[in-house]
């Protein structure tokens, strides 16, 4: 058995290479073998990024790569209904999909959606009638240049496939839970999600990860979203795990003309979280929304890397990320907007605002624009500072304690990044988590 003690930094790379044949042998489906081996070879050629790599210059991965992991999680669990209920948002009218230790558990899930194709990722790979769909969509927009997407392709097994047919509107949000429990060793998950929203269809997904053990969990997730004309896809990421979790999240969204796609990322927990978000415009009159709220402390790190590729005219993208950092927390924001020379009438907005609550907290922020068209409206900006002393004085002069005044100002600061959430239980949950993190009771 692999031990959970820290080992030299290259050991994880060696484990990944050495375990791959055993992983392939454990699969029932083998038609991806050649693709998996090629992806492993690409990973092997490059290895894990270091701070010498431009995209990771502010994020040190040594803490992750310096540990050993089990690649074959135990399936058994003893999660109780009470433990699971605490993870809910009060979403009695939602559907939910529950994965425990990588396996889909129907007895914990509630799926009432009709007229859609929904399968666990592992089952979909074994289903011959979905082979053609996978060959068309799977790994078609995920970057083959990124180390973690190659690693995911080499080892992906867990996750789900959802196809919403033309003009089908899914009224209930779908909450997807990834739970790890009863693992005696540090565990490595490579989750994979594939969402296809056909013309005129609509769906909203909430994704959350939860580690119930004191051992470390490393999750390397890849999600591919395809939104067709006049369709709407919303994906909300609720990241509020414990301090023995690492999450590398890679999301790719390709939109066709007249579509709308939103990815909201709420980062409140986890030892190290890296969010790679890539939007690709494949038509005109597209709207893309990316919002994020980060509030962390101690020695936590959250890194947001975003990119929007404006390849057609008359499209809009909107990025609004807010960060609140305490203790020795470290935040990173690197947002990129690319405007092709034919993408006239582009309207792109990008903003990153941050508040540092302690001397040990830090933020590295770098909004970027690359514009090759001449008739566009593009703006970007960032701010880093502390709370406004005048506003703080104003509130305290009205009998509000310093702690409550700070919390109210911080809540107001973060609030506008929640404005496009139209799922009330989720909006309320985010508000409560904000208040909890700020250490104050606020009535909503």
Overview of this structure, please?
This protein is of the alpha/beta class. Helices cover 22% and strands 37% of the residues. It is built from 10 helices and 20 strands. The protein has helices at residues 11-25, 33-46, 62-65, 81-87, 121-126, 131-137, 147-155, 389-396, 402-415, 424-438, and strands spanning 95-100, 103-104, 117-120, 158-164, 174-180, 187-189, 191-197, 202-211, 217-227, 232-239, 245-255, 260-267, 272-281, 287-296, 301-310, 316-325, 330-339, 347-356, 362-371, 377-385. The strands form 2 sheets. A 10-stranded mixed sheet has the order 2-1-5-8-10-12-14-16-18-20, covered by helices on one side. Strands 3, 4, 6, 7, 9, 11, 13, 15, 17 and 19 form a 10-stranded mixed sheet that branches. Strand 1 and strand 2 form a beta hairpin. Helix 2 packs antiparallel against helix 7, helix 8 (389-396) crosses helix 9 and helix 9 (402-415) packs antiparallel against helix 10. The longest helix is centred in the first third of the chain and has 15 residues, at 11-25. The chain is globular. The termini are far apart.
